[in-house]
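Input for the complex:
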Amino acid sequence: MLASLQDRTAIVGIGQTRFGKGLGDSELSLACQAVAAAIDDAGLKPADVDGLAMFSMENGREVDLARNVGLGDITHFGEIGYGGGAGCAAVGHAAMAVATGQCEVAVAWRARKRADKASRPWAQARARVPGSWQWSRPAGLLRPVDEIAMLTRRYMHEYGATRDHLANVALAFRKHANRNPDAMMRDKPLTREAYMAARWISEPLCLYDNCLETDGALAVVITSAERARDLPHPPAYIHAFAQGLPQQHQPMINFFCDDPLRGPAWACARRLWERSEFTPQDIDVAQIYDAFSPLIPLSLEGYGFCERGEGAAFTEGGALEWPHGRLPTNTAGGGMSEAYVHGFNLITEGVRQIRGTSVCQVADAASCLVTSGEGVPTSALLLRG
Amino acid sequence: MEPRLLTPDLEDPESRPFWEGCARGELLVQTCDGCGARRMPPRPMCPACRSLASTWQPTSGRGRVWSYVVPHPPLLPAYNEFAPYNVIVVALEEDPAIRFVGNLVEAADGRIDAIDPATIRIGEAVEVVFAAVEDATLPRWVRRG
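Predicted:
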């Protein structure tokens, strides 16, 4: 009998800094502030923390965090690669460490100062391009948006998806952000007319198909289900967790395999649902990684909310919008309208939905899917109340 | 420093035969000596049969547009000069899972912003040409037919 992770751990604390551009704090300072806030929110002490899980791309290291926040002796630490694909995996690895007794209280976090133009990874390209990028960047396919636009154009061609479908995504998340006092786009409503008139970034994707550029940090605290029941907030149980690195996958430039539109979500979803008591039809609310709007229809297909090729049509009729849509998605505004911190704000919003404290609270939400980056080796969580 | 277009690392041992082929005017694809499977991008081991032996074989140089994008600024300075320009993915005619990222041009020495993007169609037939870019030779594509 396999040991299962199912409901044996929970997220018991969430913390974040403010989100903005040009914040004066260093990335390490932002990380420390978010982690300290999450520990406080959990009703625990820094010395209780004995596990850490982080993104490989994080600039601050475990030792820096521990020395600043005053953490205890750390007995589990590890890092996950592939940028935006790492968020749910950091939480999942922390949960596995807690469930197997390698630590008792673990923290996962992400801090970024992305709003500084010089920090954009694609702008750091060397004149002689090494590795896999030598097959794409010399032709001028330079930025993540160009790479995802290439898949998007093909997706539109194969399945009849349109810019109206992508607008459905952008408008839904903006409506949610307009209710969220922490969202960078709190005071900026978006109309379909403004979407259609927006400047191109990489055709077929326009400005509003892109995530924000944000400085900020978020953190979560994970502990055992037993300990969670004694803490101040209702636990957000980690019901299931999976990662996905599909066969013959090439991160971001996945043009070199038999079926490029069958992204990492598919591999991740198979394991996720297999380890769950839920099916997609049971899910009350979703937080889906949205560095770019087309990742939503692709992920809806990969995670099984509809059939292959039906993801764009799924967005019709306000399906993603709170409160009446059939799958309210990115209920705090997501990466496109709240903040883009490599998707970590999707995890904290998933916890708020389970606690019942979202600004777009789904009534009696008992299950929430949270996903990390699509287009790179990825991960996902199912949270339950 | 004058802005320059990006070029591949011509000293990369895995990919050097490809770029050397381009410099001679040949579009080569790494092909497994064990099972005959083509693979792109190149790598040391064949994922089908695990053979470490491979040969760079010539191709037809013909393909079809699999997808395309039109990047607009902000880009790297050397690319801003051309924007908006096209980038296409081409599927090789004899093996459509073998694909290349390039640009659709009017001729080997044509600019990457010369073709009207509104005229590009997924599925249209193209063939390779070779363009000198900085110190490298890159495959680009012209319409055929």
